[in-house]
TrEMBL record:
Signal peptide: none annotated. PANTHER family: ALPHA/BETA HYDROLASE DOMAIN-CONTAINING PROTEIN (PTHR12277), PROTEIN ABHD13 (PTHR12277:SF81). Residues 21-145 form the AB hydrolase-1 domain. This is Protein ABHD13. The lineage of its organism: Eukaryota, Metazoa, Spiralia, Lophotrochozoa, Platyhelminthes. It comes from Opisthorchis viverrini (Southeast Asian liver fluke). InterPro entries: AB_hydrolase_1, AB_hydrolase_fold. It holds the Pfam family Abhydrolase_1. GO terms for molecular function: palmitoyl-(protein) hydrolase activity. GO terms for cellular component: membrane. SUPFAM superfamilies: alpha/beta-Hydrolases.
């Protein structure tokens, strides 16, 4: 059994800790949790939240080898760790997933037996790993090259779009989703975030019509009256969208709006 390591960053003031939101961060493919500490600092400063960030198996100081089922299991175990604690609010739990972590967050949300999440934040993620790889391969070797990477060759697929469609079609009670997309993402095409946001907005519709139908908002318009959906950050690249102006304000606004709604979270003792 792999040993998973992480950082639990609680609010300094013990009087606000039990009532603050808590965010489980599922990071992207490169690096480890040590590289994400500046990001955690920015998030904590803007949101005043508790944070759990973990390294999947095979990352950082976590043992084992990374696999798709393994990453899913690590995310589930991390959420169970939070639910076992007595010093955080179990009705103010959020997921944040970036890149491959976004696909893991969608899987975890779709497979929960209880409606225990207030919100889910997906940043610069993809519709599936094979589609993302085909896009990257095509950028390097031309559009014909995508045919040299048939999807059947991939062992790890991370089918985020299919999982999202399945989840929104069957779930009557679901958390709010915030989709954060850097318009200059140099790795994953922003259209993939648009597709994910479209499925969320239209409850699993197969008619993926990109553009305005995705409910895309600018950071400034979202801060005025936004509650969920897609927010596009001009100039944001794959790994630095969180440094864009108003990123922290958008995330803080989303979490505040989600926490202000009457709680529909239900924890039955098992996830």
């Amino acid at each position: 059994m792999p040993m998973i390591t992480g950082y639990l960053l609680l609010q300094d003031d013990p009087s606000v800790r039990p009532t603050s939101p808590t965010v489980l961060i599922l990071h992207g493919n490169a690096g480890n949790i040590g590289h994400r500490l500046p990001f955690c600092r920015l998030l904590a400063d803007h949101v005043q939240c508790n944070i759990l960030i973990v390294d999947y198996r095979g990352y950082g100081r976590s043992s084992g080898k990374p696999t798709e089922p393994g990453l899913y299991a690590d995310a589930k175990a991390s959420l169970e760790f939070l639910l076992d604690r007595t010093d955080i609010a179990k009705d103010k739990l959020f997921l944040f997933g970036r890149s491959i972590g976004g696909a893991v967050a969608i899987w975890l949300t779709a497979h929960l037996r209880s409606a225990i999440l207030r919100g889910v934040i997906i940043e610069n993620s993809f519709t599936s790993l094979p589609e993302a790889a085909q896009h990257i391969f095509s950028k390097s070797f031309g559009s014909f090259a995508r045919h040299l990477l048939p999807k059947a060759l991939f062992i790890n697929k991370y089918p985020a779009l299919d999982l999202m469609r399945e989840f929104v079609c069957r779930s009557s009670v679901r958390p709010r989703f915030l989709f954060i997309s850097g318009s200059a993402d140099d790795l994953i095409p922003p259209r993939m975030m648009q597709e994910l946001a479209h499925v969320y907005r239209f409850s699993g519709s197969d008619n993926v019509n990109l553009g305005a139908d995705c409910g895309s908002a600018s950071p400034s318009s979202f801060l005025k009256d936004g509650k969920d959906g897609l927010v596009c950050f001009p100039g944001g690249q794959h790994n630095n969208t969180w440094l864009c102006p108003d990123w922290g304000n958008v995330v803080s606004h989303f979490i505040e709006q989600a926490c202000a709604c009457p709680s529909r979270t239900v924890f039955s003792g098992t996830i």
